[in-house]
Amino acid sequence: MVDWLSLAVPFAYLGVLLGSLATFSSLYRKRKATKAFSLEPWFPAHVQRDIYFNLLHLDPPKDSGSKEKKSPAVPESVLKAALLRRAIEDIKRVMQLRSQKQALAMLLQRGSVGDDLWQRFTRAEKEMEEEVRDVVAEANAYVPGWGQTIFQSANEMLNNDLYRERMEKEQAKLEEERKWWEKKKANTQEEFMKELDAEAANATPSRKQSESSAPAAPAAATPTTPTATSGAATPNSSTPAIKTPESSSGAPPSVAGSSDDDGVLVEADEQGKK
Amino acid sequence: MSSIDIYNPLPLHLDPTSKAITLSHPTTSTATTALATELTALNTLHRALLETPSQIPPPPLPINPKRSAQITKLRDSANAAYRKNHFGDAARLYGYAIDMALGRPGWEPVTLARDELAALYANRAQAWMSQRLWVEGLVDARCSVESKAVGNVKAWWRGGKCLVEMGRWEEAGRFVERGLEIEGRESEGGKELVGLLGEVREGLERKKRV
C-alpha cells in the first residue's frame, strides 16, 4: 500500500507537468491561428460577390411544387448581370491593389509599416487572383468565350460610370452658380440704383435752387472720381455710357460690384446727356 | 474548399414577374441602403442586358450604330435651330442629344462617349451664350473640357468668355491659361485664346485700379 502511494506522487507530478505544457501549447497555437485568421481583410465585404452567390443559392420561397418546376429560382440573365457587377467591383479592387503595391513595398523595406500589413496585402492579392479566375470560369460557363471579354466590358463600364459621375457633379454646380449669379446681379443692380438715387437726390435740390447751376452740381458732389478716372476710363467709358441700362444687368464685369465704378458710369451718362 | 466559396448571406427576394431583385426585409440602416443602391444598379443593368444578344454585353467594338445615328440627328436639328437664331430651341435639342449620349450603355467605349459629349456640351454652351446665360454656358463649357481637354479650343474659349462676362477675372485668367497650356499658342484657336487672355488681363488691371 505504502509502495503505491510513493509511486503515485512522481506520476502525479509528471501528469500535472505534461498536462499544463500541453494545454499551454494548444492554447498558444490556437490563439496564434485565430490571430492570423482574424487579420483584418484588406477590402470590405464584396457586396456584389455576395449578391451573386446569394442569387445562385436562392431557393424559391413558395413551396408549391408546380411553380418550382416551371421556372428555376433565378433567371440566367439576372445572374449574368450580377456577375458583370461582380467583375466591375473586381476591377476596382485589382486596380487598387496594383497602385498600392509599390508604395507598400517601399514602406515595408524602410520598416515604416509592420509585417501584419504586408501579410494582409498578400492575402488580398491571392484572393483577388482566385476571384478573377473564378469570374472568368463562371462567365465561360454561361456563354463560351465570354470570359475573354467580360473584364474588358467591365472596365469600360467602370470608366463610363466614373465619367458620368463627374459630369453629373459638374452639372450639379449649376444651381449653386446660378444662385450666386442672381445674387450678384441683384447686388450690382441695387448698388447701381442707390448710386442713381444718390445722384438724383444731389441733383434735385440744386435744380430747385437755381437751374443754371445744376450742371455743375453732380460734378461737384464727387469731385475726385472724374479727375482720377477721366483719363483712364475715357476709351471705354464712351461705350458703356451709351448702353448702361441694358449692360448693367447683362455685363456686370464693367461694374464689378464696386460703387466707385458705378459712380463713374453714371457720371459719364449724366455728362453724355448734357 | 477555400475561402472563395464562402459568402455572406443576404436577405434577397426575386420578384417573379419583373425579375427584379429586392431586399426581403427593407430596413433603413446604412448598410442596407448601400445594398439597396447596389441592387438598383443590378436591376438597371439587368434590364439593359435583356436587350443584347444572348444577354451578355457585346465586345466594346463595333458599336451599335442606332444610337449614334439618333444622336447625330438630334445634333443636326439643334445646329439648324441655332443657325436660324432659335437659341432656346437649340439649347433644348442639344440637351436631348446630351441625354441620349449619356444614356449609352456602359460597355460601349468611354472614349466615344467623351468625344461625342465634348462636342455636344461645347455647342450647348454656345447656345446658352447666345442667350446671354453665362452661368449655364460656363457649366457646359467646363463639362466639355472635362470630357476632352485636347483639341477643344472652342470650349476653352467659351468657358473663359463666360467667366469674363460675369466679371470673374481671376478665374477666367486661370481657366484660359490652362486652356493655352493644353492647346498650345500656335494652334488654330490658340490666337483667340491669347486674345481673350489679353482681355482678361485688361479687366484685372481695371478692377485693381478701382
Automatic annotation (TrEMBL), chain A:
<dbReference type="InterPro" id="IPR018624">
    <property type="entry name" value="Sec66"/>
</dbReference>
<keyword id="KW-1133">Transmembrane helix</keyword>
<keyword id="KW-0812">Transmembrane</keyword>
<feature type="coiled-coil region">
    <location>
        <begin position="159"/>
        <end position="191"/>
    </location>
</feature>
<dbReference type="GO" id="GO:0031207">
    <property type="term" value="C:Sec62/Sec63 complex"/>
</dbReference>
<feature type="compositionally biased region" description="Acidic residues">
    <location>
        <begin position="259"/>
        <end position="274"/>
    </location>
</feature>
<feature type="compositionally biased region" description="Low complexity">
    <location>
        <begin position="211"/>
        <end position="258"/>
    </location>
</feature>
<protein>
    <submittedName>
        <fullName>Putative translocation protein</fullName>
    </submittedName>
</protein>
<feature type="transmembrane region" description="Helical">
    <location>
        <begin position="6"/>
        <end position="28"/>
    </location>
</feature>
<dbReference type="Pfam" id="PF09802">
    <property type="entry name" value="Sec66"/>
</dbReference>
<dbReference type="GO" id="GO:0031204">
    <property type="term" value="P:post-translational protein targeting to membrane, translocation"/>
</dbReference>
<feature type="region of interest" description="Disordered">
    <location>
        <begin position="195"/>
        <end position="274"/>
    </location>
</feature>
<keyword id="KW-0472">Membrane</keyword>
<keyword id="KW-0175">Coiled coil</keyword>
Automatic annotation (TrEMBL), chain B:
<dbReference type="InterPro" id="IPR011990">
    <property type="entry name" value="TPR-like_helical_dom_sf"/>
</dbReference>
<dbReference type="GO" id="GO:0006457">
    <property type="term" value="P:protein folding"/>
</dbReference>
<dbReference type="GO" id="GO:0051879">
    <property type="term" value="F:Hsp90 protein binding"/>
</dbReference>
<protein>
    <recommendedName>
        <fullName>Translocation protein sec72</fullName>
    </recommendedName>
</protein>
<dbReference type="GO" id="GO:0030544">
    <property type="term" value="F:Hsp70 protein binding"/>
</dbReference>
<dbReference type="GO" id="GO:0005829">
    <property type="term" value="C:cytosol"/>
</dbReference>
<dbReference type="GO" id="GO:0005634">
    <property type="term" value="C:nucleus"/>
</dbReference>
